[in-house]
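Q: What residues go here?
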């Protein structure tokens, strides 16, 4: 088990990731951050349940409206590099933690 600074437990943190559709490099980093901040919700455009680790899945995962668009993962992965603000527009938290 990884050890993190005790002061981190007092922080209000929201984790944000582009899409959760598999376990690649970015998801492995997110997994470590999930261990550091076990109460932090995760905001993402798309989540494919069962495609990420149990550590990530144990967090509250909030998806965008794209979650309900058929084949949205294709649209998102192809167009995301051309519109970096899309992530913030889709998953911006409406409340402060």
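A:
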């Amino acid at each position: 088990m990884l050890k993190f600074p005790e002061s981190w437990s007092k922080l209000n943190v929201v984790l944000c990731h582009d899409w959760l559709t598999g376990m690649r490099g970015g998801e492995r980093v997110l997994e470590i951050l999930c261990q550091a901040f076990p109460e932090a919700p995760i905001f993402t455009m798309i989540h494919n349940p069962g495609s990420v680790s149990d550590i990530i899945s144990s967090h509250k995962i909030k998806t965008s409206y794209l979650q309900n668009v058929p084949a949205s993962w294709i649209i998102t992965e192809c167009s995301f590099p051309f519109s970096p603000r899309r992530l913030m527009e889709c998953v911006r938290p409406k409340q402060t933690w």
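A: Context that may help when evaluating the design: Helices lie at 25-36, 54-57, 72-79, 86-91. The chain is about 30% helix and 15% strand.
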